[in-house]
Amino acid sequence: MQLYHRDAIEAAVKIDQEALAKVESGFAALGRGEVVQPPILSMSMEEFNSEVDVKTAHIRGWERFAIKVSTGSFDNPKRGLPSLNGLMMVFSAETGLVDAVLFDEGYLTAVRTALAGAIAAKHLSRKNSRRVAVLGAGEQAELQVEALRLVRDIDSIDVWARRREAAEAYADKMRDSGLAIEVHDSVKSACAQADIVITTTPSREPILQATDLPEGVHVTAMGSDSPDKRELDDEVMIRADAFVCDTRAQSENNGELKAFAGKQPPFKVYELGKVIAEGQNLRLSDATITVCDLTGTGVQDTAIANFALSRLADA
């Protein structure tokens, strides 16, 4: 059994085309029905303002599967500690022996989440998309743009965050990447000229409205990953010409589809894996509006863990 810590993992695994291809292959396998993926195991510890999620999946034919434990302790910033942490355990699918433990402290989750956003944009946004509106100013606000630049020639960012100072700090950091940045005081203003909108907030109520969407935009919503979070107003999904999620079951419980709990949504629901595996073209014109809701799947964790081990073996 191999033990790896964050420093080694971070040195070996970057947001690059090879990592993107590996995570995309996991989504495609899910779309072909080649994945065993149980529901997320979640537990909240309210008295400590903390939670834990456990995700896993086996991809048929792959020698290893991962079990990812992801923790969130939301008072940690007051303690000078990161809010998110975790590790991945990688097992032999044949023998059940532990091949490796990746003490990544949540790094691989951050990477695979960013790559999933890029994969959604690759298959759903206009190929000539150059301007992205980012709602939120945290880690994923940075990483989503970094990954997006693997698939689209992004040159401009419009950013909005609840705290203006956070948006300004984000803008200062992202300008070092050679991008034009504009900070906005409203979501509507930030989205007005966007080709792609990325929502990256822990919001518990919708922040994006249908009237905020310009013609032809693609929206990647990745902040709603638990039953108490929401980023999209119902009308955003209804207005979209195509609504896509990573898995319908997770979106109905943790993601944006819970807005329609107990009833059939008034639109067709697509899954990203099937869009990839079947080569579905949901963008029928430059005016098509697409929305993708990402809640984070076990297949992404198994894919990125296998990729990390292949890189670490070569290091």
Give me some keywords for this one.
alpha/beta, Rossmann fold, 11 helices, 315 residues
What secondary-structure arrangement, pairings included, does this model have?
Layout (H helix, E strand, L loop, with lengths): L1 E4 H7 L4 H15 L3 E2 L4 E5 L4 E10 L4 E10 L2 H4 L4 E9 L5 E6 L3 H18 L6 E5 L3 H10 L7 E5 L3 H12 L4 E4 L3 H5 L4 E4 L18 E4 L12 H6 L2 E4 L2 H6 L15 E3 H6 L12 E4 L4 H17 L1
Parallel strand pairs: 1-7, 8-9, 8-11, 9-10, 11-12, 12-15, 13-14, 13-15
Antiparallel strand pairs: 2-4, 3-4, 4-5, 5-6, 6-7
Helix pairs in contact: 2-4, 2-11, 4-5, 4-11
Structure described in brief:
This protein is an alpha/beta fold and 315 residues long. It has helices at 6-12, 17-31, 76-79, 107-124, 139-148, 164-175, 187-191, 234-239, 248-253, 272-277, 298-314; strands spanning 2-5, 35-36, 41-45, 50-59, 64-73, 84-92, 98-103, 131-135, 156-160, 180-183, 196-199, 218-221, 242-245, 269-271, 290-293. The model has no long low-confidence stretch (mean pLDDT 96).
Describe, in plain words, how this protein is organized in 3D:
The protein has 315 residues and is α/β, with parallel strands linked by helices. The chain has two domains: 2-108 and 299-314, ornithine cyclodeaminase, domain 1; 114-296, NAD(P)-binding Rossmann-like Domain (Rossmann fold). It has helices at 6-12, 17-31, 76-79, 107-124, 139-148, 164-175, 187-191, 234-239, 248-253, 272-277, 298-314, and strands spanning 2-5, 35-36, 41-45, 50-59, 64-73, 84-92, 98-103, 131-135, 156-160, 180-183, 196-199, 218-221, 242-245, 269-271, 290-293. The protein has an eight-stranded parallel β-sheet with strand order 10-9-8-11-12-15-13-14. Strands 1, 2, 3, 4, 5, 6 and 7 form a seven-stranded mixed β-sheet that branches. The longest helix has 18 residues, at 107-124. The protein is globular and about 55 Å long. The relative contact order is 0.18. The mean pLDDT is 96. This is Cyclodeaminase. It comes from Litchfieldella qijiaojingensis.
